[in-house]
Amino acid sequence: MHGEGVWLAVTTPASPSPRVLEEAAAAAERHGLPLAPRGGRPLAAVARDAHADALLVLGARSTLWLAGREHPFSPGMGALRAKRLALGEPATRDPFLEAAAPDPGDEVLDCTAGLGADALVAALAVGERGRVVALEGSPALAAWLDEGLRRLDHPAARRIQVRRAEHLEFLRACPPRSFDVVVFDPMFRHARAQEPAFDPVRRLADARPLAPEALAAARRVARRWVVVKDGTPGWDLARLGLAPLPSRRGAHRLYARAAPLP
Asked: To which CATH superfamily is domain 77-258 assigned?
């Protein structure tokens, strides 16, 4: 499968159980990917024989093999943020939640899912009656994210629906006022130090800046507001005509809200 210049195939750990083999086959069918038998071989040999640039290695966890390295799926700081929220930490301590302010039962659309950190926190905030749709335009990232969330030991992960979709096309197909909150995090434009799992995200994700057309489409879809994240000093927010919300001294991320279109 070709996406963002990467051909992806599904395989398993070296000695898979029958159940793991069955789940890997189901995942390959779910994402329209070829299934490459492992047969105890090194991943480089599996990729070579499958004519694949990358492998989604599915067992107890979802691992992306890319450029000779294995990257176990992790929502990064999203898992710790969700844990703190579950333990009763006020939402105002989390800058994303403070900006997005999702209520229990809300429907949230994350247009730039990446590793799903914000989507996981939002899913916990909206509770069992809410839902989060997480869009990822990179087919490889979407498959890795979806399978990673399926294997993540966190109940909120089950409330996230991963969709492989380019956000502008998806937004244009949505009815007006179909989500309470729409979120953009064009984080791939900022080359700050990141966790190791972010390396394949930067390599595979769409690095184009947020287009004004996408923001306008999101404003048509949002019932409450659109939230856009940017790195300091907020050049993208200024380009889009958005004013950042007040932030803590020394913050590396800025947030802005855009009202729904009338």
From this structure: Vaccinia Virus protein VP39 (3.40.50.150)
